[in-house]
């Protein structure tokens, strides 16, 4: 069996990073993001990155760390409203941005992982999303052509894996991690726990180990909250 477990994030990414590469990054907001791998990419100094991710993190957290160090050339994202540095770079013309509807982004990654180069969708017809894209009519309705996404490397976060790389996501951390994992030449996963092969229920596996080439244990983690909302204590 090929050894997939690496000592740390830097060693797991060794030989995979290069300037101008295309990354797929799992996670939603700060939920289920590959924190250790993002830190290692930042520390490597690799630049001119194109990153497909649901969002760009927040200032100083998640992919926001790579924006702060100016390592990102282009973002392909759905939601970027919580990152002031993203906004500043975008408005200053320092960052290229391809906005993509959330469901379309998920399908672009799923399609890329399934070897499908493109597909037609009704989402975005008649909006700025459709600019420059092929439009085709099916049964009297217009659809736009969207390209599948297939990156050089995918970085994802899982909950539990076995030594073969079979992986389980925990609750909403499943989000974009599963489709992103398939949409790249190499998938590197960080997980909270690794157990012996055969100890996981086969019916509980979310991502088969064939997709995971390298992995690390990233635990322990600090739970980060994007918006801490509290209400004032009521007094009698």
TrEMBL record:
The protein's name in its UniProt record: CoA transferase subunit A
Q: Which organism is it from?
A: Sphingobium tyrosinilyticum
Q: Which SMART domains does the record match to this protein? A: CoA_trans
Q: Which UniProt keywords apply?
A: Transferase
Any GO molecular function: transferase activity
- Look up keyword Hydrolase and say if it applies: no
NCBIfam families for the chain: pcaI_scoA_fam
